[in-house]
């Protein structure tokens, strides 16, 4: 008989994954909102709804980062990495993903 470890029995928990994704999206939305509040006089060439793009893309990047955080921390044993390394890696992936979301969301408006 093959002995199974506890980490091999872990199942996907949609509620926990959704909570992490929503937390990441909320962090992204809060940061981009703070960043966009500082824009006093936007360029008229951007159009009336120029804020819509960054307000959608950055929270999606944050949600993806939160989901990756859940996957790395829930299944770090299956990937063969220590939990501390998984935490650092997930934070790094979240920050880089959020930064890329900012770049993609603000490209063509505030950043040329």
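^ structure tokens above, recovered residues below v
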């Amino acid at each position: 008989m093959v002995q199974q470890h506890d980490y091999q029995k872990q199942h996907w928990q949609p509620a926990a994954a959704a909570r992490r994704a929503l937390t990441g999206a909320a962090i992204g939305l809060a940061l981009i909102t703070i960043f966009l509040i500082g824009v006093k006089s936007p360029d008229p060439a951007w159009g009336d709804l120029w804020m819509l793009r960054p307000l959608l893309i950055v929270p999606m990047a944050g949600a993806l980062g939160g989901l990756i955080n859940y996957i790395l921390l829930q299944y770090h044993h299956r990937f063969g990495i220590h939990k501390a390394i998984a935490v650092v890696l997930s934070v790094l992936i979240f920050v880089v993903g959020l930064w890329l979301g900012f770049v993609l969301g603000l490209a063509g408006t505030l950043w040329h």
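The CA atoms of residues 16 and 105 lie 27 Å apart.
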